[in-house]
Amino acid sequence: MTVAERRALRPGRTLRLGAGRVVWEVRQYFRERDTVFFTFLFPTVIFLVFAAAFSSRDPIGVRPDGTGGISVAAYYLPGLVAAGVVLSGIQNLGIAIAQERSDGTLKRLGGSPLPVVSYFIGKAGSVLVTAAIQLVLLLAVAHLLFGVALPGDATHWFRFAWVFLLSILMAAVLGIGISGIPRTGRSASAVIVPILLVLQFVSGVYFTFSDLPDWLQTVAGFFPVKWVAQGMRSAFLPERFAAAEQHGTWDLGTAALVLVAWTVVGLVAARLTFRWVRRDG
């Protein structure tokens, strides 16, 4: 091993380059106006549409005595928080890396001293930063404009924190993993967006999950989006709403296992498919 190779493997240097790459990735992200609108602002825009369009509907989950209901805005907030994670991680990274492979960016980086681990740190870190900012914006709009109550105790905030962080990790590595599926950067959106859009619709993001047929709920349970949305509902909705889930509970243990499993799938896919350039390129 050469001196240059040993230097590239130093953990401190790798982390410093990764941190610098996070800053660069975030700056590039916010310079792309179409990405900002269709990824960063999309959950907030959809929330505004839903909250305004259904503001006159009766509260959801009202008890027989007429108490305990929540607004439509409050009900849909967790699903759109989950959508933000999916869009920022899986969709954005999958498309962005495919485009970087096509336009020669990855080939240039492959010829630079940047370690591949630092590149991955930059991508994952940018997902965490942009998703966190997106989350703050969405919660502020929901709470300040529509009076949606945020979690009122440490238990629910802790539940939200681990679901959010584990979901971000899963989304980042899965986004890197699926970036090798599109053959070109131009086709990346056409390949990735429809898949994730369908998963969001069947995972309780835009529809009430309990309204879906049992077989479709079961199918959705094999994919991570459903568990991200269910985990977010467990953090933001009253505990009695767990009865409306497929098995009558929040089932957080299964949620954690599924998210970890898909994280492993993403890591394996990234290891097997990621190249600075395609082998056939």
Automatic annotation (TrEMBL):
Residues in ABC transmembrane type-2 domain copies: 34-277
Keywords: Antibiotic resistance, Cell membrane, Membrane, Transmembrane, Transmembrane helix, Transport
TM helices/strands, residue ranges: 36-55, 75-98, 119-145, 157-178, 190-209, 255-274
Annotated Pfam families: ABC2_membrane
Membrane topology label: Multi-pass membrane protein
Database matches in InterPro entries: ABC2_TM, ABC2_TM_bact-type, ABC_2_transport, Nod_factor_ABC_transporter
Subcellular localization(s) per the UniProt record: Cell membrane; Membrane
Family statement drawn from the similarity comment of this UniProt entry: Belongs to the ABC-2 integral membrane protein family.
Name of the featured protein: Transport permease protein
Species of provenance: Amnibacterium soli
